[in-house]
From TrEMBL, chain A:
PANTHER family per UniProt: PTHR47978
UniProt keyword list: Nucleotide-binding
Sequence similarity: Belongs to the small GTPase superfamily. Rab family.
Protein name (Swiss-Prot/TrEMBL): Gtr1/RagA G protein conserved region
Feature: compositional bias, Basic and acidic residues: 185-194, 203-212
Cited InterPro entries: P-loop_NTPase, Small_GTP-bd, Small_GTPase
Region (Disordered): 180-212
Organism: Nesidiocoris tenuis
Recorded superkingdom: Eukaryota
Annotated Pfam families: Ras
Automatic annotation (TrEMBL), chain B:
PROSITE patterns documented for this protein: VPS9 (PS51205), ZF_A20 (PS51036)
Pfam families found in the cross-reference section: DUF5601, VPS9, zf-A20
Residues annotated as transmembrane: none
Compositional bias annotation for Polar residues: 592-605
Keyword check for Metal-binding: yes
Official protein name in the record: Gdp gtp exchange
Organism: Nesidiocoris tenuis
VPS9 domain span: 230-373
Matches recorded under InterPro entries: DUF5601, VPS9, Vps9-like, VPS9_dom_sf, Znf_A20
Length: 212, 630
């Protein structure tokens, strides 16, 4: 079993629901044993895809404008970026665009981009149409997702997409920041066995993320 | 230092000349093919480009020659002269020869002595590190143990050599260290003697190596005189001191400065952050940062509803850094950045929190009025100390210590008075309840009294069965016909009382047989005997009552039964044959009508049941009891 370790940075303006999204995702996976003292701004999760385990390190960032200049420290060495905006709030969408420009300018290694339109529960107040966002995502070669942290919809897909993207990236020899390590049988055996039991052997994709 | 290292600028063919165009000096492999002067220039430029440095603090950044001079004059004069000498030598010889000369030169050996004395000062702690890892070292076996220490030794020998050369930039040392980590990782994976180890053990061994080597060389690598770290430390310290008026409100991080719990948590976070300076190994410093950040998360959970996000966390961290003003902050950060295993720093919780700390420091360095959302002039006034905001942390600490106490006491009083109010209310409620209960009880008793009135019947005297009783005469006639079958016998036994209707009941043997069982449970005999034994006139016995009230239609419990004159009572007392009478079942019992009627009359006279039963029990035992309350 191969293990890929990658860093995912969550970017977006303040109040678009970055943290809620992440919390929702962790809450589902760790509902029993997440330590309450650890905040939601950093967490790791393992997603198993076939015989590959993808270890995602999710870095939440502060969305305030005044911390904007510090962002390079966060997305340095990142392998994926979740660009979150609020579908009811057009400025948050334009801030995504400036984020993308900045990333394209500063990050040399290939980066998986996921544009996420959050707050679909406020469909009636929607200002950014799905088409518009999808079109934009296509133009920057990103995948587009819509989610609702409140209703817990569409969040798992985002992280799955990141994991899939990392697997693709790992086949690219040029990517150095992604840490690929063939698991040592002696140590990983117990773990991988446990994972295999819960995984359906035939299904190759769209399997629920498992964590340990 | 946040950009990646530039691709190696090594020149294969002619590394003798300096790489920068138009420079007449010889280059050096150690300095990427530049001469020392150009390398430094290049290096400074690179640093400046990164933007991580404090802009305002390095006026000498632009001209490297003066900066070099300044720095070395500042550091120590002998070193400067040594530098000049070396530079001269450099122009003549290749690096290899040069290094040989260096080692032999008296200055260099003096340097070596200094280095060794520095290293020696760490020996005790290094031993402690080794002791700590005792279990791990034993687990991996002596061969691996020896090999690891051999690696470390060779590494620090090399590193010490470089440190001796004051021209070695700290970046090179850092690179060398990182290479060492990488080589070691590779070695662990490839060498046979490490094959037995688990991945976890390898990680631990790497940690140990890092800790061991870095603790050993701490004095050499931490804040070395060749860098401007110390200067930066002073600058940031001054800056933070200038910013001491910044409050949690300015940072907009939701920390309530006046609550005691918050104080405690902020203090513990500050303590952890300050602890960073006393730790030696980079990973220990990192661990301090992680602990500090976790304390801040606890704090944020206390202050802010819901999960803590980076939006809340970063301002809080900045606030803590501002209030802590940790010693040698920049040196520590640089040290960790340079000498912590890069793979650790890049990933994981430690990396995240460390990045946040760097972010906080960078924010503090570049703090402007805009970043605090306040007007420019107000900001500058604060900075110059012209105005002091009322709600700073210090004033909250010093001035408001008494206020805190007062507030807390007031809160406590409010709580107490609330509690006493509740107590009063409850007491009143209890009283009302009790009154209600009392009334209800009385009411119930009244009701009961009404529905079950206590009938105090006048004392009854034993019925004189022989007397002329109008009631007896009113008795329905049908009874008498049943009576007489064995009249002579009855009369003989019961002569004293013998009312005809009563003593007749043994008409035929059939009836006798039937009523025999009945006789024991029946109370007639016992009753009579009790009355006799006590010798007191009681209520009329059940038997008699039933006898009297044979005309039951007219009987009512509330109606006081008229006492019946029983003159024959006295004679009964003395009458011995009473035993006989009981023994003889037949004569008394057989009369079915009597016993039947007695039952029904019993139903009427509930209150008098107990005494009757008691009496009957006693009677049936044939041991006359001393008491009879009737």
């Amino acid at each position: 079993m191969k293990t890929i370790e990658g860093k995912v940075v969550v970017l977006g303006a303040q109040g678009v629901g970055k943290t809620s999204m992440v919390v929702r995702y962790i809450g589902k996976m760790f509902s029993h044993h997440i330590s309450p003292t650890i905040g939601a701004s950093f967490f790791t999760c393992n997603i198993n895809k076939g015989d590959i385990r993808v270890k995602l390190q999710v870095w939440d960032t502060a969305g305030q404008e005044r911390f904007r200049s510090m962002a390079p420290m966060y997305y340095r060495n990142a392998n994926a970026a979740l660009l979150v905006f609020d579908i009811t709030h057009p400025p948050s969408f334009s801030s995504i665009k400036s984020w993308v420009k900045e990333l394209q300018r500063n990050v040399e290694e290939p980066l998986i981009l996921c544009v996420v339109g959050n707050k679909t529960d406020l469909e009636s107040k929607r200002k950014i149409s799905r088409e518009e966002a999808e079109q934009y995502a296509q133009s920057i070669a990103a995948s587009y997702f819509e989610s609702s942290a409140l209703n817990d919809s569409g969040i798992e897909e985002i992280f799955l997409c990141c994991a899939e993207g990392m697997i693709t990236l790992s086949q690219d020899k040029l990517v150095k920041t992604l840490r690929v390590s063939p698991s040592n049988d002696r140590t990983e055996n117990g773990r991988s066995e446990r994972v295999n039991v819960s995984n359906h052997p035939s299904a190759s994709d769209e399997r629920p993320p498992l964590c340990c | 230092m946040w950009t990646k290292k530039k691709p190696c600028l090594r020149i294969d063919e002619s590394y003798l000349k300096c790489k920068s165009p138009g420079c007449e000096f010889y280059g050096n492999e150690e300095w990427h093919g530049y001469c020392s002067q150009c390398h430094r220039e290049q290096f400074q430029r690179r640093r400046k480009k990164v933007g991580f440095e404090v802009q305002h603090q390095e006026p000498h950044n632009s001209s490297s020659a003066t900066s070099l001079k300044e720095k070395y004059v500042k550091a120590s004069l002998p070193e400067f002269s040594k530098f000049e000498e070396k530079k001269r030598q450099q122009t003549e010889k290749t690096k290899k020869i040069l290094s040989g000369i260096f080692r032999k030169s008296p200055e260099a050996s003096k340097e070596k002595v200094r280095v060794e004395s520095l290293l020696r000062s760490e020996l005790r702690e290094v031993e402690a590190v080794r002791q700590e890892a005792q279990d791990l070292l034993r687990a991996i076996g002596p061969a691996a143990d020896a090999d690891v220490h051999k690696c470390i030794r060779s590494f620090y020998k090399k590193l010490v050599q470089e440190v001796e050369n004051p021209m070695t930039a700290i970046e090179d040392l850092s690179e060398r260290t990182q290479n060492f980590y990488q080589l070691l990782t590779k070695r662990f994976d490839e060498q046979a003697m490490y094959a037995e180890m688990t991945n976890d053990q390898k990680e631990q061994l790497l940690d140990y190596t890092e800790k061991y080597a870095m603790t050993y060389m701490y004095q050499l690598l931490f804040c070395p005189p060749t860098t401007t770290d110390e200067e930066k430390d002073l600058n940031i310290q001054k800056r933070i001191r200038q910013l001491n008026w910044v409050s949690a409100k300015h940072m907009d991080c939701g920390i309530n400065e006046t609550s005691t719990e918050t104080h405690d948590l902020v203090y513990s976070a500050i303590t952890e952050l300050l602890g960073m300076d006393s730790a030696k190994a980079p990973q220990d410093k990192l661990a301090c940062v992680v602990r500090c950040c976790q304390k801040i998360f606890t704090l944020m959970q206390y202050c802010v509803e819901g999960p803590t996000s980076a939006d809340d966390f970063l301002p809080a961290l900045i606030f803590v850094v501002l209030k802590a003003n940790p010693a040698r902050l920049k040196s520590n950060i640089n040290y960790v950045t340079r000498f912590c295993n890069a793979s650790r720093l890049m990933s994981g919780e430690g990396g995240y929190y460390f990045t946040n700390l760097c972010c906080a420091v960078s924010f503090i360095e570049n703090l402007t009025a805009e970043s605090l959302n306040m007007p420019e002039d107000e900001f500058s006034q604060y900075m110059e100390g012209k105005i002091v905001p009322s709600n700073t942390w210090e004033s909250a600490l010093i001035m408001c210590e008494g206020m805190h106490l007062m507030n807390e006491n007031l809160l406590r009083f409010a709580e107490l008075s609330k509690k006493s109010d509740i107590l009063g209310d409850e007491a009143e409620a209890l009283r009302d309840e009790m009154v209600a209960f009392h009334d209800e009880m009385l009411q119930r008793i009244d009701d009961l009294k009404e529905s079950y009135p206590l009938i105090i019947k006048p004392l009854k005297e034993p019925t004189d069965l022989d007397a002329e009783d109008p009631i007896v005469h009113e008795l329905p006639p049908p009874l008498s016909p049943q009576v007489v079958t064995e009249k002579p016998k009855v009369a003989e036994i019961d002569s004293p009382e013998s009312p005809e209707w009563r003593l007749t009941p043994l008409p035929d043997p059939n009836l006798t047989a039937v009523n025999y069982d009945f006789d024991l449970s029946d109370m007639s005999g016992g009753d009579l005997s009790t009355c006799e034994d006590l010798g007191t006139p009681g209520y009329q016995s059940m038997e008699t009552a039933s006898v009297q009230s044979l005309d039951l239609n007219a009987y009512h419990p509330t109606v006081v039964v008229k006492p019946v004159e029983t003159p024959g009572a006295a004679s009964l007392l003395d009458d011995p044959p009473i035993q006989e009478e009981v023994e003889l079942p037949s004569p008394l019992k057989p009369e079915p009508s009597t016993s039947y009627q007695g039952f029904s009359s019993q139903g009427w006279q509930i209150p008098s049941i107990p005494c009757e039963t008691g009496a009957s029990r006693l009677g049936s035992d044939r041991s006359p009891g001393p008491m009879d309350n009737s």
